[in-house]
């Protein structure tokens, strides 16, 4: 496909959707600018061009987006004449976009496939000094607005939120918890974007504008045009409907494919990326290799169970299976050492971590459950038993586990390191017991749980302990285990609902607790463990957290601003860690969403909540939270979710009658 053909295709999509884009622009673009610093003198500061200023970003999908800013003079002229614009006036934007796209395309080797058009929908004047002070109120990488400086050759030099964050302009390093100006990165990017002659002097009284945008994104490959979200914590990506069973499916598919692509021919993963500057994470972690492989098998299983008629053509199950086998081979033959009748996973520095043995067992058991006809059954069961024997040897007489051994002689290195290891170990032994019915492993877990209860491990709110307690209850439905599961989440639901970071393990914790509530239905004699616990509040938190996870997904309209979009596209990131994409980050998002997708498919609420949660899943936004303001460090402005019997119908009530379009996991389509 030639560059001209590609650009013409993008412009055709834009032209077809222009009436809807025009309507959106009319409703959302700014008409006035506030002055946040009433004491500052901004006389002579021209702002009349801002309502008619547009930001165009394009990418070939392989290189970082190139960005241009332009003003539509005809619209500005109409405003000065107090005339109302029409669609025919707005159509004059098309040749300007085409000319800018042609010019920007010269900087790419491949045809342009992504186009993002934005306009300002909120702006306020302030000073450079006050802006820098304000940044301390925001968690690093959570300043969600753009900034603009007075230009030399143009009225304003605009830098959007995505440009600032993708180029680490407001990031001071991982030791500084709040946002702050990184002068070096900011100057480098202003020079690249606007030219060295326009770099400001940055005096304290320098007038600047902070602004937010509305806009659209066009994906040439998908043939779709999407409206961009403007809600404070959801800015940057397309508008999304609350997740349903059908709309969760493509996210699971894409992230499974992404994780599978990280497996190299050797079986080792590409461990991760810091995408602002496309820096590969050059360390490795055996525990995360095993746990990510477990999640990859989960993803394969989920994709295999999807209706083939609705699955993306890009999902190749045979290829995913091949990558799973490579990762398993690497785990077994490169990372595991056999010590007579025991086996241990060896991690960096020759360490043996309790959790590494645990997640290796999880991967082995899951493999055997999903690939039942494998010729490796005996080999994998034998290895799982030896790894379990290794865990058993790390258990103390009081039921507790030691956490780290030296690999060379199995001597103790650290009695305690991280509480996650305890939950991982108990969960793995329960899964192995479920496969083999060997009471030896169940006895280890019951002994461990007595210790967990006495030691008040529930105070850690650990998702692995939630997984484990749910498994244990299936075989030993005793009140103390139900009570532990409730205690493990009690007092934590507001955190699950409102936490500003995506924190994907919160969804895993919630999904495991949901399954425990279903089991509790079968034991009315234990229902008093829920006294004082708000079940409805829990489900509101669960749905809010699941939907909030979409803010950590690299849609193309976000990935395009980073140095190498293809390395992160459809992966999951951690914003406050420099948008890091690491295999275990993807693992936790994926595992949680698989559980959530299953829940949405069955719409199976516990009877305990039946009066408030009918078997008809309907999640709706409540109220208009489009405040167009950046999110502060202590903000709790999450969208609220509620469930009602008949408020909004999704595809969970039945199959779609025809295949959905390529962009079916989004709403806010331009057309």
What does this structure look like?
The chain has 671 residues and is an alpha+beta fold. The chain is built from 22 helices and 18 strands. Strand 14 and strand 15 (412-414) form a beta hairpin. Helix 19 packs antiparallel against helix 20. Residues 611-666 have low confidence and may be disordered.
Distance between the termini: 25 Å
- Strand tally is 18
Radius of gyration: 27 Å
Structural class: alpha+beta
Number of helices: 22
**Dominant shape:** elongated
Q: Summarize the biggest pleated sheet.
A: 8 strands, mixed
Q: Which range does the strand content fall in?
A: 5-15%
Unreliable spans: 611-666
Mean pLDDT: 89
Share of helix, binned? 40-55%
Briefly summarize what is shown.
This protein has 671 residues and is an alpha+beta fold. Helices cover 42% and strands 13% of the residues.
């Amino acid at each position: 496909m030639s560059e001209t053909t590609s650009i013409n295709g993008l412009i055709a999509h834009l032209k077809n959707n222009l009436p809807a884009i025009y309507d959106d622009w009319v409703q959302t673009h700014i008409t006035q600018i506030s002055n946040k610093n009433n004491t500052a003198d901004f006389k002579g500061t021209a702002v009349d061009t801002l309502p008619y200023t547009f930001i165009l970003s394009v990418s070939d999908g392989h290189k970082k987006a190139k960005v241009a800013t332009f003003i539509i003079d005809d619209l500005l002229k109409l405003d000065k004449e107090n005339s109302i614009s029409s669609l025919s006036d707005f159509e004059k934007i098309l040749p300007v976009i085409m000319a800018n796209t042609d010019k920007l395309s010269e900087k790419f080797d491949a045809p342009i496939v992504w186009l993002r058009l934005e306009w300002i929908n909120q702006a306020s004047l302030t000073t450079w000094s006050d802006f820098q002070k304000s940044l301390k109120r925001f968690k690093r990488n959570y300043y969600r607005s753009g900034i603009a400086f007075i230009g030399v050759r143009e009225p304003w030099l605009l830098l959007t939120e995505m440009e600032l964050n993708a180029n680490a302009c407001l990031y001071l390093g991982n030791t500084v918890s709040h946002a702050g100006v990184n002068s070096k990165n900011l100057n480098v990017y202003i020079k690249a974007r606007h030219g060295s002659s326009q770099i400001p002097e940055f005096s304290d009284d320098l007038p600047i504008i902070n602004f937010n945008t509305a806009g659209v994104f066009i994906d040439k490959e998908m043939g779709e045009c999407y409206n961009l979200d403007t809600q404070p914590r959801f800015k940057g990506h397309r508008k999304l409907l609350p997740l349903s069973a059908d709309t969760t499916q493509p996210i699971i598919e894409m992230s499974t494919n992404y994780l599978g692509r990280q497996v190299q021919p050797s079986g080792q993963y590409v461990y991760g990326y810091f995408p602002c500057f496309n820096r590969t994470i050059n360390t490795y972690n055996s525990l995360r290799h095993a746990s990510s492989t477990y999640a990859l098998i989960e993803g394969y299983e989920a994709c295999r169970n999807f209706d083939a008629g609705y699955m993306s053509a890009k999902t190749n199950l045979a290829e995913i299976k091949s990558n799973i086998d490579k990762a398993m081979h690497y785990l077994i033959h490169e990372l595991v050492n056999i010590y007579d009748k025991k086996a241990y996973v060896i991690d960096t520095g020759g360490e043996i971590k309790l959790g590494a043995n645990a997640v290796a067992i999880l991967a082995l058991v899951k493999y055997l459950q999903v690939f039942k006809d494998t010729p490796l059954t005996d080999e994998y069961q034998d290895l799982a038993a030896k790894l379990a024997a290794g865990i058993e040897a790390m258990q103390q007489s009081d039921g507790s586990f030691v956490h780290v051994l030296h690999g060379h002689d199995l001597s103790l290195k650290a009695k305690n390191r991280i509480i996650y290891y305890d939950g991982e170990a108990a969960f793995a032994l329960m899964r192995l017991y479920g496969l083999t019915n060997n009471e030896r492993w169940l006895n280890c877990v019951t002994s461990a749980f007595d210790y967990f209860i006495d030691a008040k491990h529930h105070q850690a709110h650990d998702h692995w302990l939630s997984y484990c307690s749910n498994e244990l209850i299936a075989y030993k439905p005793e009140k103390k285990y139900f009570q532990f599961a409730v205690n493990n989440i009690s007092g934590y639901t507001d955190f699950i609902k409102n936490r500003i970071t995506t924190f994907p393990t919160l969804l895993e914790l919630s999904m495991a607790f949901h399954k425990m509530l279903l089991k509790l239905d079968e034991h009315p004699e234990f229902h008093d463990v829920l006294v004082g616990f708000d079940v409805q509040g829990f489900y509101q938190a669960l749905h809010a957290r699941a939907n909030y996870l979409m803010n950590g997904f690299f849609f193309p309209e976000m990935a395009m601003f980073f140095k190498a979009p293809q390395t992160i596209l459809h992966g999951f990131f951690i914003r406050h860690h420099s948008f890091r994409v690491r295999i275990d980050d993807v693992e936790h998002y994926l595992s949680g969403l698989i559980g959530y997708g299953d829940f949405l498919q069955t719409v199976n609420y516990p009877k305990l909540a039946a009066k408030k949660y009918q078997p008809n899943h309907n999640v709706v936004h409540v109220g208009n939270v489009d405040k167009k303001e950046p999110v502060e460090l202590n903000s709790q402005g999450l969208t609220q979710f509620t469930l009602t019997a008949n408020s909004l119908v999704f595809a969970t009530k039945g199959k779609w009658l025809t295949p959905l379009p390529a962009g079916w996991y989004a709403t806010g389509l331009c057309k």
